[in-house]
Design brief:
single chain; 127 residues; mainly alpha; globular
Amino acid sequence: MISVLILIRVACEGVIGAVMRYGFIHVTYPLIKTAFQFGTFLVNILGSGLMGLLVIILLEKGQSKLTACLLVGVLGGFTTFSTFSIYTITLAQKGELLVACSYVILTVLLSLLSLILFMILGKLILQ
């Protein structure tokens, strides 16, 4: 059973991650004004890197509760791309290369398709 206190902590840390993402993107946007979303791009790369670092450090030290809060809470709020990255690498490390590649391709393609379909749905709702 999941502890209510851990859920509250993860939620609060998710807020911290979301605020960090918002601030990071709005600080970087005026510095690099292009059509390419460098702020989001950098958040995804930084979040994935931090996910890798924290997984190794925290899991090696047996900090599962802290791991859940930081990885799911802070980094989950900062970027969901970090979770995508760790799942992909974990599959690859287990020798599931076909599954890992399929996961990457399907996640990206279906996420884009979902975005398009839900944009169409939103337009239909607003008509």
